[in-house]
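Supplementary Note 3. Input sequence used for the single-chain structure prediction.
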Amino acid sequence: MAYPKFEYKYLFPLDLYETLRSRIEEMCPLDPYAVREADGRYTIRSVYFDSIRYRAYDQKVEGVRKRQKFRIRVYGNETPSSVAFLEIKQKDGALLTKYRAPVLYRNLPALFTENSYMHYIRSGTGAGVDRSNARRWMYYCVRKQLRPVVLINYERSAFAGVENFDLRITLDTSIRGEMYPGLTRMFDDSKARPAMKTHGILEVKFTIGVPMWMRNIIREYNLQRLALSKYTICIDALSHDARSSCFTGTALDRSERAARHLSCMFTQFQTPAATDVF
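The predicted structure, written as discrete structure tokens, is reproduced below.
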């Protein structure tokens, strides 16, 4: 069953990765997927869909409170049993709800070419996972005329709460992307280009609050809470010309949107006030 969580994001310099990971792991163990990997990280690969006029991008950069993103996500390296998830990421301010439906990765092409696509949707467990979400995803895909825009890959160290089972903390690094990808090449990294060379993203997801030990880490390393989006970051980093030709006639001038979005990534941060952190 899908239910909303708060999602807070913080930018951190890559030279802090090992320190942050060590400090977090003292209080919050790696999740079952990360602990299987030798270095405690696994690869996430997502193809984001958007309309012809990049409406999801504009809504994020312009700060629209209620918005949706549509993507297909896979994990790790390709195997015959690799599973892809159709995902709708629904935001209402800092509240996040995910709707997911699993399908074997090898069956993705059939999903878009056959009328009986529900035949390929699998049952699954986990928060937000339900076969019916596939109908919702495909409905919006047709209604909004969505098409693949960018493939975004990164390495994730994920930590799961022990006493607070709704707490999840992630460190995402090596964020890279490829514009206009094919769904049959989601596991191919050969054309991916770096989108964030010097920083990573720390995410804290919760329902009942950020624990005090995590607040102390955030304060100690002067991490500032920011409205970060890997989708808009990769679009900005990888496809300036495409943006210039597509994004016109929206509420904010193009240069203002770019300045608002990029200023947080390429400036030195001051120590944030408490209200900015939490």
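The radius of gyration is 18 Å. Residues 132-143 form the longest helix (12 residues).
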